[in-house]
Amino acid sequence: MALTTSPPGGGISYSRITMADHMDGKAKIRPVYTGICGTDRAEIAGHLPFAYNPTGQNYMVIGHEAVCQVIDIGENNSRIRPGDYVIPIVRRRGTCINCRIGRQDNCSDADNDITEAGIRGADGFNSEYFFDSPENLIKVNDSSMVMLSTLTEPAKNVMKAFEIFNKLSARSIFESEDSTYTSKNCLIIGTGSEAFLYAFMAREYGMTVYLTNRHRLLEEKMRIIEGIHCLFYNYLEENGPDKIDLLIDTSGDPAAVMKFVGKLNYNGIAILFGTNGAAPDSQLTGNDLNYIIEHNIAVSGSVDGSKKHYMDAIGYLEKWKYSSSGIINKLITGIYKPEDTEIFRAKPPEEIKSIIKW
Amino acid sequence: MALTTSPPGGGISYSRITMADHMDGKAKIRPVYTGICGTDRAEIAGHLPFAYNPTGQNYMVIGHEAVCQVIDIGENNSRIRPGDYVIPIVRRRGTCINCRIGRQDNCSDADNDITEAGIRGADGFNSEYFFDSPENLIKVNDSSMVMLSTLTEPAKNVMKAFEIFNKLSARSIFESEDSTYTSKNCLIIGTGSEAFLYAFMAREYGMTVYLTNRHRLLEEKMRIIEGIHCLFYNYLEENGPDKIDLLIDTSGDPAAVMKFVGKLNYNGIAILFGTNGAAPDSQLTGNDLNYIIEHNIAVSGSVDGSKKHYMDAIGYLEKWKYSSSGIINKLITGIYKPEDTEIFRAKPPEEIKSIIKW
Amino acid sequence: MALTTSPPGGGISYSRITMADHMDGKAKIRPVYTGICGTDRAEIAGHLPFAYNPTGQNYMVIGHEAVCQVIDIGENNSRIRPGDYVIPIVRRRGTCINCRIGRQDNCSDADNDITEAGIRGADGFNSEYFFDSPENLIKVNDSSMVMLSTLTEPAKNVMKAFEIFNKLSARSIFESEDSTYTSKNCLIIGTGSEAFLYAFMAREYGMTVYLTNRHRLLEEKMRIIEGIHCLFYNYLEENGPDKIDLLIDTSGDPAAVMKFVGKLNYNGIAILFGTNGAAPDSQLTGNDLNYIIEHNIAVSGSVDGSKKHYMDAIGYLEKWKYSSSGIINKLITGIYKPEDTEIFRAKPPEEIKSIIKW
Amino acid sequence: MALTTSPPGGGISYSRITMADHMDGKAKIRPVYTGICGTDRAEIAGHLPFAYNPTGQNYMVIGHEAVCQVIDIGENNSRIRPGDYVIPIVRRRGTCINCRIGRQDNCSDADNDITEAGIRGADGFNSEYFFDSPENLIKVNDSSMVMLSTLTEPAKNVMKAFEIFNKLSARSIFESEDSTYTSKNCLIIGTGSEAFLYAFMAREYGMTVYLTNRHRLLEEKMRIIEGIHCLFYNYLEENGPDKIDLLIDTSGDPAAVMKFVGKLNYNGIAILFGTNGAAPDSQLTGNDLNYIIEHNIAVSGSVDGSKKHYMDAIGYLEKWKYSSSGIINKLITGIYKPEDTEIFRAKPPEEIKSIIKW
């Protein structure tokens, strides 16, 4: 049984599919939990024009966020064994110069060179069991981390984004005069699961972290934000910090991005992460360009992450499990069954991350 | 005698001013050539709101591009001697963390921390003679370089911009698989003096270099572009390269910037340099953000340059003098006298760089 | 009461000293735990020629590893409050270009520009109470971390060393073709407290980690090494890994360093950290130089760390407390009273870190 | 006709060899000038144990420094044409992670993965004509540069070494507080051709440059050193600078290296480049390690260079041709014929670079 869609048209079905029955040097694995994200919903709604079925299939197993258990891995794999928990990676290496060094997140020809499980030309992870090459599996060492590890895939994006932040901030002295980031402001646009994971990471740097959105938050999200010592404001009603050093956008909304780029400090950095097909257009003015120039501002898109970032993500999730007194667990707001396909169609109010228990 | 204006109102006058008559540890220097740039003209036209007179003066000597000769430098300066040619720097150090390490081009508080000769709160260089601290003077070692050194100030901006390019390109493998940039395309928007200097530098990297504008070029500029093995096209009439790896904007025009950001390759980089108060607004769409994200594109403003960049600029100008068979000299399209104040009001057709011989 | 010595002569005394009785904008703090390290013992034994008393004192309070509690911090400090736990930093900023940006660990003139608490010209932390500027105090947010935080000072050295590793490894592609460090070998020479902290950190990178020494280890250390999934071998009796990617020396022994530099892989990195006044000389041959050159090997010393590294150290200690199932606590092998001055004279067999409870 | 040797035994012969007679997609090229270096002489003397003949040959054409002219390049090569001057590269790509991105100079498995023309398993360039893939050829654009381009191969080593310097100096603020290197001292051990090329490059950074050796220099070398504004001293007789910021060794002599590492400033950098099989052993002491650690010193080997560095080398040689008023030409101290095989056996007194005119 598997959850399938058929891009670019969309749809969702929980049904029996034809499964491979031999391993070909691969590992046989079964999902334990899978996460649901905006990309899945966009695909199902038929709003993801770049998604396409695997060659020779008229459907695609959906889902690229998963923690799985190894059923069988054949002989002679010293690193991973049956029973181990693993995270399968989304994007699979092509042959471009960046893929060659294991950085398919930086693929120089992503339109042609790579596939992405559950998105572009490769089956995803919502399937009773499936086969994958050991090189695509990241081991979860701590078995108490199984459910939380469902957040590894979204968290690996955060790791990649902060790698970019580290590179961009090397343009000048970004840190304060005590060598730390404690007097720096990070503003995160959006209050979804990625926004929260960005907030956790910006707190690791010691920054003062603001989340913002154009509406108020219900109680539960506010409690998480307070619990991790961050701040929230509704930017339609309130003024946030005067100056921002690091801006992270998870909204994909051009108007919000430009509003806050205009509050970046000298040598400030904006990381664009969120995409939103439905966002209305905004203005880009000569003054915007002038502001970016005079302030030595850098803006960078960040997509995906490499195996390195998956490993870092697991490490930080493990840390946050303890350091946040369990608040990190509250990011998982609902656990569903595979047959609850409605969860792919409608986002529950105040969802942070919905997951499926297989 | 000096050329003065009075920002933010503007105006231009060639008249006698009160000169300091003692050195206070400074060097006494006289301009040999000064360059005229868009900032000067904007100031005179009253279009530079952030410009302001030096404290206690109701005027400001204009001009921040100059090559000067040292008249007197007092005792015990081992590095610079009377008769030497020097370039005075524009921006003067404040106390912020970046100024402290000599990187006032990255000043963390440029609204308050620094002054800029001929622009913000400090006299410029169009004055019969003036006094400046040795630490603000860059020596020109090769006396055959005097006139060409007038381009040092604009060229130092190019050096800083490529420093940023080097940092941003470290996000991934940017070079081709032979370790060089020879298969990379650089597109430069604009065909003024800065655009040409950017073109020289991109050629140093071995890139294929395109300049573009929304009109055709007269013969003389076309000959320079061909002479340095670059290409030009009028983007309103012709299609340029399909994909760009490095985009440099000297136009300050949001529509042009967004048009070409949309042609950046994976891991592409855009350097914003040109400002233009009069540029019409353009659109920024959700698709634009999506494109930047999916392609791991980085966009960075770049302003000013440090002493390091002035020194590099002199070195490259010297190199280009020889390697371009003298074509670099053609960037200086007109030599005027200080009393020709009209040159500050109207840009001659096909001007690249107009200079004043003192 | 305080533990004092008088360098360069040495000695140790637990006795009453004259205490300042006003705060002068400083915080009044008391040590909760202090750590004892080789530097302290060398000082007391009169083997640290560069140590010297604070100006105007004929003694120096010893000790630079401490976790303290704030007794009083005056008004208006929003960041630190009475009752908070803090780590005081060792090295205090001078005026050189690196100190100016809060990187006194990279002081360009450490002979003259800085002081070091308990080592060079400034009192250390083994004193009933003392006064320190808030800028020298790093807050420990998690009160369950108090005792373990005594390791912050030694761990901050590890953070700085890995910062250097990150810079040096940017000379080439150091990671494996899956973007991770999982197929890389790290060898650590030595089995003292710093060696163990380096091992924890190298495991964070996912490397295979070997510790080595020229003797066997007793049971307790072996259990820790196994517990954190590292390996140990006695290099006088056994062969370790054929090739090393990252070598970290905590021994200060030239013969051991050169033995293992000769096993570094192409693009390998050696971090020198340990010093040892009594180590016998070794050889440096033309073949050694040739090996370093042909293999593009980089060797770097690493001393001290900045506030940034103290903060990172606290973060990682907190992580390791949980991820190692408490094994990190076993690094603290003995708790003493201030009057147990003998602990400064003789290192107990199998000591990893001895601390004093105040 | 070709100059051949047979490593590891050695010998030199100018004789007829069997030449390939078809191109196989390669370019047919003929050497115009070839350079002779210490590696050639060591090979001929039988002192290069790692050199070996190409597979299936009992000889190897010697020589890896050459400027050549293209005789035929087949069809459809847009970049290089018959008549063009080109530099063939020495080291040919393997399949390791660094070779894959065109950085065979950083080959992760150089014992097995790469070949080197005229050194390891591949014919060199002292052959009437030969065939090479276009990807191994670097074009010389300026035909007045032909003879001087013989220095491209040695100069590319300098470019790679300064790339490493740039990476290592990012550990701290290395520049002076005016952002430049003008107050930094560079000391170069040795006075051969590589030493001179390093001196030219260190002058590009604006450093004060010292060359040193353990004997006096004859007139001609002294004139070159003065001409490029460097300083020389015999370190057996005179004291050089108190403190060094950048040390470059071209001698391969451990005693000289350690003598001057001990004079490195805080955050100082040593680049090891020269190898010398006959150098006597020296001491490495605990104090040496301590000095390296306390001063945050980094030492790195540097071997070979990539295509990027060959291109940079040509650019700088072109620059130096003009900026040094022709002094760069004096580095070529003798021009020989292929039949003058004696020049491979004995180094003329005061040789800097001997070349062969084909």
From TrEMBL, chains A, B, C, D:
Gene Ontology annotations of biological process type: protein tetramerization; small molecule metabolic process
Cofactor: Zn(2+)
Pfam family membership, one: Glu_dehyd_C
GO MF term (any one): oxidoreductase activity, acting on the CH-OH group of donors, NAD or NADP as acceptor
All copies of domain Alcohol dehydrogenase-like N-terminal, residue ranges: 24-141
Domain of life from the UniProt record: Archaea
Matching CDD domains: glucose_DH
UniProt keyword terms in alphabetical order: Metal-binding, Oxidoreductase, Zinc
Domain Glucose dehydrogenase C-terminal: 149-356
Protein name: Uncharacterized protein
